[in-house]
Amino acid sequence: MFIPIPENISPILKEIGTISYSKGHRAYLVGGPARDLILKRKLKDIDIMVEGNAIGVAEEYARHHNMRVKVHPEFLTAKVKGRKFIIDFASARKETYPTPGSLPIVEPGNFEVDMRRRDFTINAMAISIAPDNFGELIDIVGGLNDLNKGILRVMHEKSFQDDPTRILRGIRFSARFGFTFEDKTLEYLKRDIDYLKVVSRERILRELEFISKEGIEGIRVLKKHHIHAVLNLCTVEDKILNKIIEFSKKTGINPEKSLLGSLLICTDDFPLSSHMHKNLNLIKRLGTFNIIKVARIDEDYLPLLYAYIENSEEVVKFFTVRERISPEISGGEMIKLGVSPGPEIGKILEEIMVLRWQGRINTKEDEIKYIKGRLNAR
Fold this sequence. Notes:
Blueprint: H1 10-22, E1 27-30, H2 31-38, E2 45-50, H3 54-64, E3 69-72, E4 77-81, E5 86-91, E6 93-96, E7 105-108, H4 111-116, E8 126-128, E9 137-138, H5 143-149, E10 151-152, H6 159-162, H7 165-177, E11 180-181, H8 183-192, H9 201-212, H10 216-224, H11 227-231, H12 238-251, H13 256-264, H14 274-286, H15 291-294, H16 302-308, H17 313-321, H18 331-337, H19 343-358, H20 364-376
Parallel strand pairs: 2-5, 10-11
Antiparallel strand pairs: 1-2, 1-8, 3-4, 4-5, 6-7, 8-9
């Protein structure tokens, strides 16, 4: 069976396949990109597996196009950032896991070993990019059949023990494609779910970020399989999720950071960025609407604020007028009017913001008038 290769990537794949072939290697489009090509979905990146020296192939391809190549010899991989795609090159390899949840020990392998080390059958298909059979699908694990049936099936019964993050990847694919776990795979998931506890919180957080990008369905599938209980995540009610999406649709704000925040706002178990930590702390301490505090919350987290705060319609109003409530006068101008340098400047700016929010100040001239009146009233 041959898979049609879109015109925008065909020249790239043909060139890589030819370079590999000239070195005595065969190369394949593999993993998620192969799956998505079969599903006729648009590719974001390109994953290449070479039966041989993938780093050498990547370096030659990069040299032809005057591109930079980033090499990871310990993993037998290289990355080339092209004009339209990021291209990941990997030699066919074998992986062994010293302990559950640890990073694998990587050794050279062959095509079959490489396919059978992968997470799910739908991600263990390969499309040849060699000149003599360009576009041919190589499926040794029944991935195409599972793809057609909408099934997520692991490669072996200890797959989730080797790498528990595969459970979270399965959640992501289930949310994205509407696929269900094959019966045995679901048994393994339930049996091995506690292995997620041994994975570093950094890796778990990264997977949760990916799940949040799948939208509301990602969080729902996570809850459906009780992952939140194992990872000490918030039990997010559907009404919260629905309000996040409702506000996102009203405003056009991407909901993914708010969806991720909804999982993390009740826990301190994860190494959040200072940016996210600040926003979640502001939201959970707010309770009711306060324009000064709300103005400190970044736009990406307004859907979450809308979902959690009591008088949520105020958040909609804030979104529509937020650019008009910022004071126009500068600190230097205030000093020239007679305001003392220091904390008083910040206090007056907050007062002006409240008055703008209330509609009692609308222009810079109004601000100057207010400040003069305040100074005269001393």
